[in-house]
Design goal:
The structure is a single chain. The protein has 123 residues and is mainly alpha-helical. The longest helix is centred in the last third of the chain and has 35 residues. The N and C termini lie far apart (55 Å).
């Protein structure tokens, strides 16, 4: 089975970039308390990461652990983007959940944790 390696790397880069961008948009949406939008962005990030992972899995399968696929700078770059995107998405999910918890506490008469953090002088 042969593949267009350059095209495959671009597909990996594009999907990884989309995953990271959507994760960052989710964080921005959470800051505005736009929870539905944040959840939609997290779902879009997950889908893009899944598509990128499919490409990565295809490459691993074709290589069979024996160096059949040449390692190029663009391949390393694409793998780095995917790893960073997955980490960004994981952290974004936690940040959105934290913001939901903070705002929910404030809505129920509890201390607004975001206000408290802003008042600390040692931050």
């Amino acid at each position: 089975m042969s593949i267009d390696l350059e095209q495959t790397m671009m597909e990996l880069l594009i999907n990884a970039g989309e995953a990271r961008s959507c994760a960052m948009l989710a964080i921005q949406s959470a800051r505005k308390q736009a929870w539905e939008e944040a959840d939609q962005q997290l779902a879009a990030s997950q889908q893009a990461a899944r598509e990128a992972h499919k490409v990565q899995t295809q490459l691993i399968g074709l290589d069979e652990g024996s160096g059949k696929i040449p390692i190029t700078l663009i391949m390393v770059h694409a793998q780095d983007h995917l790893m960073t995107a997955i980490l960004c998405r994981d952290l974004a999910e936690e940040m959105v959940l934290l913001r939901k918890e903070m705002y929910a506490g404030a809505a129920h008469g509890g201390p607004h944790l975001l206000d408290h953090a802003a008042q600390r002088s040692d931050c």
